[in-house]
Automatic annotation (TrEMBL):
Lineage per the UniProt record: Eukaryota, Metazoa, Chordata, Craniata, Vertebrata
Residue ranges, compositional bias (Low complexity): 599-613
Subcellular location: Cell junction, Focal adhesion; Cytoplasm, Cytoskeleton; Endosome membrane
GO cellular component: cytoskeleton; cytosol; endosome membrane; focal adhesion
Main localization of the protein described in the UniProt heading: other
GO molecular function per UniProt: GTPase activator activity
Pfam families in the cross-refs: BAR_3 (PF16746), PH (PF00169), RhoGAP (PF00620), SH3_9 (PF14604)
Assembly description: Interacts with NYAP1, NYAP2 and MYO16. Interacts with MICAL1 and WDR44. Binds to the C-terminus of PTK2/FAK1.
Residues in PH domain copies: 229-333
SUPFAM superfamilies, sorted: BAR/IMD domain-like, GTPase activation domain, GAP, PH domain-like, SH3-domain
InterPro entries, per database record: AH/BAR_dom_sf, BAR_dom, GRAF_fam, GRAF_SH3, PH-like_dom_sf, PH_domain, PH_GRAF, Rho_GTPase_activation_prot
Name of the featured protein: Rho GTPase-activating protein 26
GO terms under biological process: signal transduction
Gene designation per UniProt: ARHGAP26
Amino acid sequence: MERVPPRGRCLLSGKDLSSAKRKFADSLNEFKFQCIGDAETDDEMCIARSLQEFATVLRNLEDERIRMIENASEVLITPLEKFRKEQIGAAKEAKKKYDKETEKYCGILEKHLNLSSKKKESQLQEADSQVDLVRQHFYEVSLEYVFKVQEVQERKMFEFVEPLLAFLQGLFTFYHHGYELAKDFNDFKTQLTISIQNTRNRFEGTRSEVESLMKKMKENPLEHKTISPYTMEGYLYVQEKRHFGTSWVKHYCTYQRDSKQITMVPFDQKSGGKGGEDESVTLKSCTRRKTDSIEKRFCFDVEAVDRPGVITMQALSEEDRRLWMEAMDGREPVYNSNKDSQSEGTAQLDSIGFSIIKKCIHAVETRGINEQGLYRIVGVNSRVQKLLSVLMDPKTASETEMDICAEWEIKTITSALKTYLRMLPGPLMMYQFQRSFIKAAKLENQESRVSEIHSLVHRLPEKNRQMLQLLMNHLANVANNHKQNLMTVANLGVVFGPTLLRPQEETVAAIMDIKFQNIVIEILIENHEKIFNTVPDAPLTNAQLHLSRKKSSDSKPPSCSERPLTLFHTVQSTEKQEQRNSLINSSLESVVSSNANSILNSSSSLQPNMNSSDPDLDVLKPTRPNSLTPFRKAKALYACKAEHDSELSFTAGTVFDNVHPSQEPGWLEGTLNGKTGLIPENYVEFL
């Protein structure tokens, strides 16, 4: 980045133009964009490939030796210098500030951890308060640095490439012999311009969400944890015995509950890296260390199966110790720290919900399909809420009249539609499929993406799929009028991606996936007829059902990777579980007794009622157990390994008793060997 502007300035000087152009082309050819995240979009790959295309063009232009380039400084050098000084310079300053705060925080923390527990309580509380203030400041500085680095990397995609494109366009106008070359370059130039605009739109469209997320993370740091494959990870001080006493060595530790493996990596603060060899042990037990038994605070003892003696560890705080002990099932009270950050909305996917969405779509398509900035321009919040209250009124919601009064502006109607979708208890495309949709968008070619998303859509519950189909048909109609309303498929993806496919947990990693949420919506709009009107090309295999799982040639039974939204808490006692089972059985027995006479007198067997009271649902429903039919049996089609205590593990061919619908979409409840738990709905068939 530092070499490109000086070599570009040398190109403008007119001295040894041929040599300068070759060097400039070489710099562009060697330049590589660094991708934040685990995948790139098609637009980002196009932009990254553009520098090699530019280098080829410059080498061809070298043969002409044309020396006159007008306005090159304005369109090329100035923007690059401005970007380097303002953006990269700011990132460097943020890095210096972050390094300084890191050193300060670690120093204060080590002093704090060396405080004796025998000091006065007031002194300890004062020290804790001071460390909390420093920790909060360090946390804010860290977030600002991450945010600035992410901003610079995103801006490079368009603020670095776009001036180069303008410079090349200027060359074409002045070079008579470059006319034919410009014609050859034109197709790629069009594709690149679209990619730059799409990247800019995604950046501008998601910037406010990134800032909002950063603000939430500053206010509630404990509620926004990074998604990790480990049950628990972080820094711990491990007591090591020496010849003349003991010492406390800082380690980065990870713990995996399934395998009970604890990995300890010595960490050297000065070098910022490993300070020795890794050590892994298998957990046997974990016990809280009483304060009066050791000089240090926040300590706990770990016993290992494959290592003699006791390992004493010191956490960074009382809360940190509680989390470590909770992860290791230690002898410490377990508190349920999983909070439902989603307040349940009043919106539902029922006949009223379908009626509201249909009325909004009808109003938009008949009165405002050509309005510029459709769905991007928001309405006044008070007016939006007032319209929603009218539409959601049960007295008027059931009316079949499709027209919304002309007094409501189109921007108010479009905002009401988006707000209603956000008011649903969960996103329309469901939390448990969010990661699978994102991974489908990251596949290498477009055909694979469409195929995987096609399969995933047909795994959604019926009402979700119908509502999504209704919405995508409408958005395709909006995109078809993009010349008038300026809302292309990419723009609609930016608007609806975070609404339809928001993640359940707001993390820094979620920032990187926002652009892939948009791509999923783009694919749904562009391929809505195929996705919603046809079944997937091939039967859904275990691997297709779980895109988040690694594919292998072994016929390894898949685990249930899509978790339900709410799990039964493992901290419940056996008594509560037995009470819950007795309530289910008693309710089923009452149903049996109340219907015994009608069953005995009936000449035909009792069948589940498949008639829906919802007139908006026209697609044939799959066979589901009726809530009034007790003790249905089901047979497993695939094997499944439980990933939570509330689920059942089973092999293909297993028969379940007492199978009935669960409150969790896509899951059933059943009994196997006397244990009641959750079963994936698409893994079984009813007998």
